[in-house]
Structure formats: C-alpha cells, structure tokens
C-alpha cells in the first residue's frame, strides 16, 4: 500500500529472480477503500505474527473507478475463494485461461474438468513443469489425494503448456519458475498471490476479482503468450 490510497499486488516476490527469470503479474490500483482492506489484512498478520485466522477482511464489491472489484484474503476466505473461481469457470461460455505454478484446489480442478469434458469453452493455460510433476508423483504415492489425479490429468491434456524450470533445491538452484497466478473466465479476472492450490487456501494470500472485458482480453492474451513459449505438458509418472 502507498499513502493509504494505492495498492500494488500480484504474484511477484521481491527478489532479483522474480523480476528477471520468472513470469509474473502485477496489478496497480488507486483506491483508498482497497488500500484499507489490504491494511486490515497486513495488520492482522503483523499483530499476531501468525497466519492462522488472518485474512478476515470483507469480500464485498468495491467501486474502483468504473469497475467493481472484490478482495479475497486467505486463509479466512481460502475455501470460499477456490469455490468462487470454480464457479466462474463453470459459468464461462467463451473462454477460460489460467496460469499457475500448480493447480490442486479441488473446486477449481472439478470446474476445469467439467468444462473441458463438455467441450463448450475454449480452455488453455500454463503451469510449471517440475512443480506439477512433483504434485503428480506425490498424489500417486498418497492415497488420500489420489482421487484428484484423474481430474488433473484431464485438465492438463487440454492445451496446457509447461515451463521446464530448474527444480527447486534448498540452496544454489536458479529460481526461474513459471510464477504467474491468474484466471480469466469470460470477462472476469482473478489475480494475485494465490496459486490455485489447497496449500494456497491455508497460506496468507490475496486476490483481486475484477470484471472488465478489456483487462480480461489483455490477461488472456498474456496467458497465451506465456504458454506459447513452452512445450505442451507431457505426463510422465
């Protein structure tokens, strides 16, 4: 926040590699009401030094210029956010575009799987190859999550690309992940720090939900540009 009047948010971390080696999205918005909500979330985190229980900030719409914007903060609204994104995907009639390192939140996976199965919506996206490969391996080993694996495989069989980034290591590895985090469902955009995962629901994350045709067109084109840089996702287990 700046001067209790502007918000700068998105998927970008404050690291050199985030700015030079990763795909990311940044949103700038001038709105005192929006800034107040982000301040509320920050003060909850700062005041408790804990993530659990924070994010208890309203998600009702705010007028920002001519647009209607909703704020979503997790973990308090983590599950509600996943269902909100899933609902928008399920109601889409023209297009869905998604960029995310991983996609593991069940409501989002289920909605994507359904619209792909029905072949009524243009669906495409980009993920991070090593990270999504790690998810597939873990789910194969863990029976508690294996029920989501067929949905993930169906989703990634659609026009999804995968960046073959450098696998993460404790020290010394390059951090060049596909790190952009956004969903476009027709003319609605969800973007911020949430990576469409179950763990993301439990982290301290934030998302702006914005309904604007021009912005949706720009970000859908961005997803297509990113996925055009990388090969189609190839399943290997």
Summarize the structure.
With 237 residues, the chain is α+β, with helices and mostly antiparallel strands. The protein contains eight helices and ten strands.
What secondary-structure arrangement, pairings included, does this model have?
Elements: E1 6-10, H1 16-20, E2 26-30, H2 32-48, E3 62-64, E4 67-73, H3 78-91, E5 95-99, H4 106-118, E6 122-128, H5 129-141, H6 149-156, E7 160-163, E8 182-185, E9 188-192, H7 198-202, E10 206-211, H8 213-228
Parallel strand pairs: 5-6, 6-7
Antiparallel strand pairs: 1-2, 3-4, 4-10, 5-8, 8-9, 9-10
What do these coordinates show?
Helix 3 packs parallel to helix 4 and helix 4 (106-118) packs across helix 6 (149-156). An eight-stranded mixed sheet has the order 3-4-10-9-8-5-6-7, with helices on both faces. Strands 1-2 form a two-stranded antiparallel ribbon. The radius of gyration is 17 Å and the shape is globular. By secondary structure, the chain is α+β, with helices and mostly antiparallel strands. 38% of the residues lie in helices and 22% in strands. The N and C termini lie far apart (44 Å).
First CA to last CA: what distance? 44 Å
Order of helices and strands: EHEHEEHEHEHHEEEHEH
Question: What is the strand arrangement across the widest sheet?
Answer: 3-4-10-9-8-5-6-7
Decide which structural class fits the backbone.
alpha+beta
Q: What share of the residues does DSSP label as strand, in percent?
A: 15-25%
> What is the strand tally?
10
